[in-house]
Every structure is written in structure tokens, then in C-alpha cells.
Specification:
The protein has nine helices and 19 strands. With 377 residues, it is of the alpha+beta class.
Length: 377
């Protein structure tokens, strides 16, 4: 193995972290990544997709030709807002006590830096980097737009590795082979405003909304299965907005969030909720937004290969998991077998987000090992 790893992951991670790239990311952070990829022989395609309110979004598709199995690495350069109270600036990368601090250190600029540093200089297998500036936001014009761009240009990987921070207690302990799907639903129930002393002259929408929610809350979707926990429906907001104590409101609203396993489909769940809503009040409105379907990359050769690379570099074998929220793997899984593996997730989205320097370098070695093993397929 032609090892050129040290100290590239740290240098590139620092350069990426220094770029303010709150979602949707654009500009400078993509300049840094493109500059790192061009000397490695990649063709870099940067493009803007979408318009307000969910765009515009900058994306980057980098490809390098070769022979054999086409491996893609996917990730995002956007980060959540830093918040107040950082020990040092959120976009001033700083090493303290063996940790590299900065917003995006683990989610997920560190993993992107580790993968780029792992790429051999010499050509080998076909490689792609699928990098969006909108994973932390609406994700409408991010990875989905990248997939459309790939189709237009005939780019279709055989395997995809997403660099999300999957590790929990130590680097390498968890490999994500699937994720639950997600549906958000908004319900609006109209009424007629009036004085509480004259209820016959008004129409209170709250009892109908409460009845809907009670029926919805009683639903048991499934019991889960070998790889997924049970699907669940949660009421996340109830809004009336009535400041007066003596007024029957004209409208009541609620919001639901459904996280579901591979025994369910988003559209079916939305239809089921809408049927309940309309049965209680035909005039009620319901809007459903399916942010992703559940997916599972069944344990097999790809997850075994990743596990072998992790074990070779860390001495531990990862647990296969489908826990956690959604990621862009939900879109990429439609193209090819897709798994997620990256840094420890303990500090993601927190103040003073940080990656251990040893973990950053070890992740780069694991990614290099994965590339070598894929080349041998």
C-alpha cells in the first residue's frame, strides 16, 4: 500500500472547517475541496440547483475513471448553525488536547477530509465523490439533484459509502446498513369564531382535532423486525393561537412526525392519516411531506468488506445498525448498495464539536483499506 496519509487529513480538515458553510453551503468550502481533488485526477462538476425557498444549493460531483468496481463516497459540506458559547470561534479550527475543534469536525467535514486523503495518487478503480451543500437543510436540491446529474452524465456507482458519523463509543463500533423513513404531516381544522357564552353561534374546531389525534395516537403500525425498531407516530405540535379566554377559536392546527421501518411506505402512511382526518372533518386540510423512505442494505459482501477494513485497522468489528435519524443514504440507496460509516457522533451539532486527531487519521486509514479491498473485488 502506497501510504501518503499523514498529515493530509488534518490539513484538509482544518481548511474545510475554516469555511463558514451554514446550510445551504456554497462557495469557499467547495473551492477548498475542488482544489484538493484536481491534483488527484478528478473531473469536478460544480453546479447550482433549485430556487427559493429551498434553494439555490451548490453541489459537487467529482469522478475519476478506472477499471473494476465503481466506489462512490457521499457526504455534505453544509453544517448546522454554530450557536453561541464556543470556547474558540466555530469556524476557527483549533487543536486542543488532541482534539480538532470546529463546526463540522465530525458532521461531516472530517470524514470528507479523511476520504480525500485516503485516495491513492495512482489511478485504480473508478471513484466518485457525491458532495452536497444541503443535507442539514430541506435537502430538496442537494443529493437528489446530484443523482439527477449523475443520470444525465451516465455516472452510476456499484457501491456507495456515506461518511456520516456513525460511531458511538469508539471509532469503528457501528456501521449503518439502513435507516427508517420519515413523514411530516400538517393538519388544519377550520371552525367558526364566537363568544364562549354563545357556543351555538360558533363552531369550535378543537374537539374535532383532539378526536383525530386521539385516534391517530392509538395506531400501532408494526412491531418492528430483525433490523428495525417499531414504526412510531408522534404529535409534535398543537397550535390554536388564541390569546383570549372568552373566544372560541376559528382554527386549530397540529403537526405529526412519523418514523417508519421497511414494513411501511410513506405514501400509504399519509393516506391512512388523511382518511382519519377527513372522517372526523371533511373540511379539514392535511399536507404530508415524505422526506425519505426506509431502506436496508442487507448484510452481505459490502458490509463484510467494510467490517473487515474496520477490524484490520482498529481490532474491533462494527455492530450493524439502522438506528438514528434520516441521512442522504435514503436517496443513494436507490442506486446501489449503500452503507454509512464515519467518526464518533458524540459532539455533532453541539458546542465545541470536535474530532480526536487519532480518530481522524485512523478513519483515513480505514477508508484507504476500503478502497484497496474494493479494488480487489
Amino acid at each position: 500500500m502506497n501510504d501518503r496519509l499523514l498529515p493530509d487529513p488534518l490539513d484538509l480538515a482544518k481548511a474545510l472547517l475554516a469555511c463558514e458553510s451554514v446550510t445551504p453551503a456554497h462557495g469557499a468550502v467547495f473551492d477548498v475541496l475542488e482544489a484538493a481533488l484536481l491534483p488527484l485526477g478528478f473531473t469536478v462538476d460544480r453546479f447550482i440547483a433549485g430556487s427559493a425557498p429551498d434553494g439555490p444549493v451548490e453541489n459537487l460531483l467529482a469522478t475519476r475513471g478506472g477499471r473494476g468496481t465503481h466506489l462512490a463516497f457521499a457526504g455534505h459540506l453544509d453544517v448546522v448553525p454554530p450557536g453561541e458559547g464556543w470556547t474558540s470561534g466555530a469556524f476557527i479550527p483549533e487543536v486542543r488536547g488532541g482534539l480538532l475543534h470546529g463546526r463540522g469536525a465530525v458532521d461531516m467535514k472530517g470524514a470528507i477530509a479523511a476520504f480525500v486523503a485516503a485516495i491513492p495518487v495512482e489511478p485504480g478503480i473508478p471513484l466518485s465523490l457525491i458532495i452536497t451543500g444541503d443535507e442539514e437543510g430541506p435537502a430538496i436540491f442537494g443529493t437528489r439533484a446530484l443523482i439527477e446529474r449523475m443520470a444525465e452524465n451516465g455516472v452510476r456507482p456499484d457501491l456507495c459509502l456515506v461518511g456520516e458519523p456513525t460511531s458511538t463509543a469508539r471509532l469503528g463500533d457501528t456501521l449503518k446498513i439502513g435507516r427508517r423513513g420519515s413523514v411530516n404531516i400538517w393538519i388544519g381544522v377550520p371552525g367558526k369564531q364566537g363568544h364562549v357564552a354563545y357556543p351555538h353561534l360558533a363552531d369550535n374546531p378543537i374537539p374535532r382535532l383532539v378526536a383525530m389525534l386521539a385516534e391517530i395516537d392509538a395506531i400501532v403500525l408494526d412491531a418492528g423486525n430483525a433490523w428495525f425498531q417499531p414504526s412510531n407516530i408522534e404529535v409534535t405540535d398543537i397550535t390554536v393561537g388564541n390569546p383570549a379566554t372568552n373566544v372560541i377559536p376559528a382554527r386549530a392546527e397540529a403537526r405529526l412526525s412519523i418514523r417508519f421501518n421497511d414494513e411501511q411506505r410513506g405514501v400509504d402512511l399519509a393516506d391512512r392519516i388523511e382518511a382519519i382526518v377527513k372522517r372526523h372533518d371533511p373540511a379539514a386540510t392535511m399536507v404530508a411531506r415524505i422526506s425519505g423512505e426506509a431502506f436496508l442494505t442487507a448484510p452481505g459482501p459490502f458490509s463484510d468488506l467494510i467490517g473487515d477494513a474496520i477490524a484490520a485497522q482498529t481490532g474491533i468489528r462494527p455492530e450493524l445498525s439502522t438506528t438514528g435519524g434520516t441521512s442522504d443514504a435514503r436517496f443513494l440507496s436507490a442506486l446501489c448498495p449503500t452503507v454509512e460509516f464515519g467518526l464518533l457522533n458524540a459532539t455533532m451539532h453541539k458546542l465545541d464539536e470536535a474530532v480526536a486527531l487519532d480518530d481522524l487519521l485512523a478513519l483515513s486509514r480505514i477508508y484507504r483499506d476500503i478502497i484497496v479491498r474494493v479494488a480487489a473485488l
